[in-house]
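Justification of resources, computational component.

The compute hours requested in this renewal are based largely on the per-chain cost of generating structure records like the one below. Each record pairs the submitted sequence with a full structure-token output. That output is archived, and it is also reused by downstream analysis tasks.
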Amino acid sequence: MLNTGDTVKGRYSIVRTIGGGAYGTVYLVSDSAREGESLAMKEMMEVKIPTEERSEAVQLFTREAEMLYSLSHPGLPWIFDFFSLEDSHYIVMEYIEGETLEERMKSHPGPCSWEEVLTWAEEICAILDYLHRRTPRPVIFRDLKPSNIMITVEGRIKLIDFGIARHFNPGKVKDTHCMGTPGFSPPEQYGTGQSDERSDIYALGTTLYYLLTKADMIQYSKRFTPLCTKSPTVPQWFEEVIMKCLSVNPGERYQSVRMLEKDLLMRIAGSNQGRLSAEMAHHLMMKSLSALAISSLKAVTAVTIMTFIMTAAFGISYCYLFDGILFYYALKGVILICFIFSAINCLIYNRVKWLRKYLLIPMIITLLLVASMASNFMRARGDGLLTACKSNLKNIGTAMEMYAHDNRGFYPQKLDDLTPQYLKTLPSCPVADKLTYHYVSVTEPVTCYTVYCRGKYHTPFHGTDMPEYDAVQGLYEK
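The structure output for this chain reads:
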């Protein structure tokens, strides 16, 4: 066991002991490599584990570290490091200030209000949905219970202790090991079948039942007393949702967390909205806003990447509408939208670390757009295409003067009149393929004109430096 002031791995200084169990201890540590940031370090010592259980315990501990390290969700603790030193194993993770729902139940005389439990249920559903939708292999938590659910000082829900979580294997009929917590885990986790996402749904149902009744869950191994007899204030629609989760037969439960969440939201919408607390209404609004923000970020990112790929793969001519003034203002708009939506998510989750994560999206978009724009602009100006465009304008100008010489000083009504006598064919801009030059005449008959290029890739932003040719100045850039 470590003492206050000890240093592990040359960077983690022990501040104090947070908690512990039979096989290990959890410490509050200061990380010198992260400017003294406070983290939690979980230690497991092999000498405290019976020899016959040691191998399995180390395996579960390592699996928990590797699994959490691969996950990223505001409802899960961040893992910064995991390592082994001699016969001790360590996980360094985010330090979560708050209490478990089990601790909250013990400190309160009665059960929780159904509005509060409904808010927590929504957040837990979001976390489980993230785990179950992981690809290529979903993650089954397998030990959802009040002592493994923390509520932070900001009021957010976090799942902790992934010790027996596992990846879902569709080829297996039964779990290799029978694990879980009596009273909260479903029957299939005790040898009757394989645990899947419906097992977590059952455990969510038992957790909600306990929070609403404060009942001794050990007695409810097969059949639950109707919720209304123990907590009459719970709405019937909420009881129906919970009791469906508690079906002994997995086929009679919700088949996915997304189906559960959808049914829950539909029943909330169909209930008397006046009965919902302000806190619950605010939570639902924030959940919808967060979903909209994340979806919009994904859509903007996808469109930007697609534009970048098209520009790189198919050439400038296919994407010329994304340059010039349109491209410039679109660029500013996309970046602004991304930063706004990133700020929304950060405010919702109230996390500085999530600010860094969400800002990566607009930063990537900005870099892609700027890279696309810069590559197109440099290609248009740096490899002779601008020179070729100016040469085309000079040829048009020479043909115009030849036409005027033969027509008493008057220029043609349109550029097509130059062919085929003065020009075999009208040239097109080499930057914007098949985009002909624009002809503007200001008098009738024509005594003054301007021919200019509409190829947007001659300019990075506002349409400046566009090559033009007129009867007075000749060739110039505007």
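The longest helix spans residues 278-314. DSSP finds eleven helices and 15 strands in the chain.
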